[in-house]
Amino acid sequence: MSRKALDVYLRGMRIGELKGSGLRLSFQYDRRTLAEYGAGSIVLSLSMPVSRNQFDGPEVYNYFDGLLPEGQVRSHIAKENGLATPDAFGLLRVLGADCAGAVQILPPGDSPDVPGAAKPMADDEVSSVVESLPTWDLPADFLITASLGGVQSKVLLTREESGWAWPGRGAVSTHIIKPEPLESTIPDLLTSEDWALRTAAAAGLPAATAHLQMFGSRQAIVVDRFDRAPNGSRLHQEDFTQALALASEAKYEGTAAPPSRLTRLVSAAAPHTRDDDVFRRDLLKAVAFNLAIGNGDAHSKNYSLVLRDGGEVLLAPLYDVAPTLLLYAPSNNAGHAVSGQIRLGYITLEHLVREGTAWGMEEDDARHTAVSALEATAAAASATHAAEGLRFLMELVPARVNDLLGGGTARRALRQEPA
User: Fold this and answer.
1) Which of 65, 297, 364, 403 does the annotation list as catalytic?
2) The model scores a pTM over 0.70
3) If I label 385, which of 112, 246, 257, 299 is the partner at 20 to 30 A Cα–Cα?
4) Where does the pLDDT of residue 2 fall: very low under 50, low under 70, confident under 90, or very high at 90 and above?
5) DSSP 97-128
6) Can 297 be counted among the known catalytic residues?
7) Which pLDDT score is estimated for 1?
């Protein structure tokens, strides 16, 4: 076994080997995986179907790098371990024991599951860890061995009957705790995310379960991981950048030229869904919801797919949703092009309908899906309690929906400035 190799596990079973260093990575499924699932099956990622051939293109780095944190958190962990920030292979050797989905990346000989690896934490230890983010001022025996993509500072913990526990190497983390950023251009970001998730659920859209909680002096949002089953087992998922073999830095779609990124995603995923019509409707509902609430952070790392063991692909629940445009006017990027438009302030109902038809939906189906999602969002927003300072959202979001249903663009404020 090469010293420049890591074992890749999925749901506790070894499926292949990752080789390389720094930016040069290759991945090879093992023979057992090929024999069990068959060539062309979707096991790890849409971008890397099961094959007897080795993958050594950009899809390998982009998929595995997408499991790692971004920004300041990544830089800090790399520095702490004497690694270069882009060194995905080196960082995965440190952090790969517990990643998004059901994948684990481990040094040869390491077991994917270590009984008792979760260490119980006292309440003051939990508060200290959350308060210290993003500097990771941890107790000496708490090693960082879990990883989740994204820029926001967060800590992954395991919830047990007795309380919080630190997920040591191989243990399954069950919750994400994100404290309010110390410096943010968007005010009330976590409070508004909590409201948006509750609004999505009230509108009948699958959404991550979350609640706000104080940890010492810092408020944080505590999110139940949707890629973890109630029994603590791992459920597999990947975000849209990984599914399309895109780099994490390309999470915002940079062009309005057709075919749209969402069209390409649907083309790749639909053949592996149980009902491709339902998949298209679910995705269009999610896009319509993000438009209605003014989510300027609905990029390709904030949409994910669930990949079941039999190869079935589903749209994952909504997560990391917030009305950023309504809190900070420059947050006007839709994340994905919608029928040629990438600015939230210019997208209309007709853009949603045309985007849906580009995915293969009938026009009447696309219109009915978008309208029903917008109407459900308006009703849910008006009935979902918002914290003081955000109560205007309960009126503004329904007003935005009325604008869209009337054929126009959605307003950014309750009272529009005269032209």
Assistant:
1) 297
2) yes
3) 299
4) very low
5) TB-STTEEEE-TT--S--TT-EEE--HHHHHH
6) yes
7) 38
